[in-house]
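Protein modeling request. Please complete all fields; requests missing the sequence field cannot be processed.
Requester role: graduate student
Desired output: 3D structure, token encoding
Chains: 1
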Amino acid sequence: MDSQKFREGMSQFTTGVVVVTGIESGSLVGFAAQSFVSLSLEPPLVSISPQIASTSWPRIREGRDFCINVLAEDQRDVSEAFAVVGEVAAIGWQPSEVTGMPIVDGAIAHIDCRLRNEHEAGDHTIVIADVIDLAVHDPEARPLVYFRGSYGGFASD
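Delivered output (157 residues):
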């Protein structure tokens, strides 16, 4: 399969955008991700898929706990700040009450997670995590979405 053809085909699928955050030596570390999914209701499990080459995931993995922040439509700048390899995004955040992991200011929701296991898959790692806690911060907010290489919003009926 030609990689460009694969990329074009996969860009036809709309995804939400999340930021995965953790703490390293008391400081925020994280990355933007589109590869996030709910896996199981019982037990509650989610999955993310960071790139094997990620510089942030190994730093987050070490603490075992992390937070998935569901971004709102107006948070494109937050996603872009976390997409810069090797840099720490200069954004506001608060520690979650349960794990202390960073909740990004303005996120629609956050999901506190604990690493369960990992599986190598091509140029990514499939991470499976237990959901420790979650909260919806703004049930009226619209999500940031990604489609055909561009950010956008979601219009409901």
